[in-house]
Amino acid sequence: MKPNVVIVHELYPELLKTLEQQYNVVHFTRLNSDADRADFNAAMAEADAFLGSNVKFDEALIERSPRLKVIASVSVGVDAYPREALKARGIVLTNTPEVLTDATADTGFVLLMMAARRAGEMERKVRSGNWSTSLMSQDFGVDVTGKTLGIVGMGRIGQAVAKRGHFGFDMPVIFQNRSSKPEVEAALDARQVDLDTLFETADFIVVTAALSDETRGMIGRAQLERTREKTILINISRGPVVREQELIECLQEGVLYYAGLDVYEREPLDPSSPLIGLDNVVLLPHIGSSTVETRGAMCDLAADNLNRVLAGTSPLTPA
Ligand SMILES: NC(=O)C1=CN([C@@H]2O[C@H](COP(=O)(O)OP(=O)(O)OC[C@H]3O[C@@H](n4cnc5c(N)ncnc54)[C@H](O)[C@@H]3O)[C@@H](O)[C@H]2O)C=CC1
Ligand SMILES: O=C(O)C(=O)CO
């Protein structure tokens, strides 16, 4: 009997075909409707394995999936999964580290550059026929090269952002991390500081810390009030690391100069969010790792992990 595999993700055709040859696959590109949800729940009742992302795996779903052996998440962040419940059931959780590090760090720099040069605002002006009003000094942004870069959470993605800043833009790097990282300090001529010092000192602050009970709400008004006149905050980790309502208020009041966000407290971002009406924020729809090559590599790694667990061997990247 072939194992049953539920997939909730777009896959490139060759990979889907390979998986369909090996398994009984029920495939959703995403769960769009109540009908999809009902079909998904029915499929999970029989599933041996799940591959995908953006599915809320609460304890009730785990209970309704009695045969489940492995969740191969197409993401590095695994904050959406109830670890204790998975452990209790012996379900293996895998993720996709490394292969998305560069694409996500690049997205951090897209946001940083767009915010620094107010590129979204300028682009909107050109499109609305207001070329000349973008040439006034009150519309100018700020320099990037040589400015101090502050990283919150110096893991894989944090280090990739820091490398871009250090080698590409001549930036002094400071960072805050849960554990000490002398090797990073040495390699990037960087300095590890506490969170308050980071917010007081950096010109650009890039949040790349994983979401956990410890980091949830770690950044709010108390930190933003410490920033300098033209500080820019970028969040490419998870929305709930930053207190979104306090961020909005600080942007509205000019306490924080500018922000660039790829992630939000609730996704998709509600169209009625005040963020959408603010000029001093660049908004992306959680596309940190969304390139053709990187998504392909993430799906390959997730599939390898799933194959290995179903074959009774250890996954390449257990979460
Ligand atoms: N925007 C997007 O599309 C993407 C977002 N991500 C997010 O980025 C996160 C980081 O990914 P990686 O760098 O690969 O993970 P990682 O595990 O290498 O790095 C996470 C870092 O956060 C640090 N950290 C944990 N608690 C902290 C605390 N209280 N204070 C300061 N630092 C703390 C850890 O020490 C670690 O260095 C993921 O967990 C995910 O949420 C990842 C990929 C794409
Ligand atoms: O990998 C992750 O954690 C993401 O957010 C999407 O790539």
Describe the structure.
It is an enzyme of class 1 (oxidoreductase). Keywords: NAD, Oxidoreductase. The chain is of the alpha/beta class and 319 residues long. It folds into two domains: 4-99 and 292-310, Rossmann fold; 101-283, NAD(P)-binding Rossmann-like Domain (Rossmann fold, 3-Layer(aba) Sandwich). 37% of the residues lie in helices and 14% in strands. The chain is built from twelve helices and twelve strands. It has helices at 13-22, 34-44, 59-63, 83-89, 101-116, 119-127, 156-169, 182-187, 195-201, 221-224, 244-253, 292-310, and strands at 4-8, 24-28, 49-52, 70-73, 92-94, 149-152, 173-176, 191-192, 204-207, 232-235, 258-261, 281-283. The strands form two sheets. It has a seven-stranded parallel sheet, with helices on both faces. Helix 5 (101-116) packs across helix 7 (156-169). The longest helix is centred in the C-terminal third of the chain and has 19 residues, at 292-310. It starts with a strand and ends in a 9-residue tail after the last helix. The relative contact order is 0.13. The mean pLDDT is 97. The structure holds 1,4-dihydronicotinamide adenine dinucleotide and 3-hydroxypyruvic acid. 1,4-dihydronicotinamide adenine dinucleotide binds at residues 76-77, 97, 100-101, 104, 152-158, 176-179, 208-212, 214-215, 236-238, 262-263, 286, 288-289.
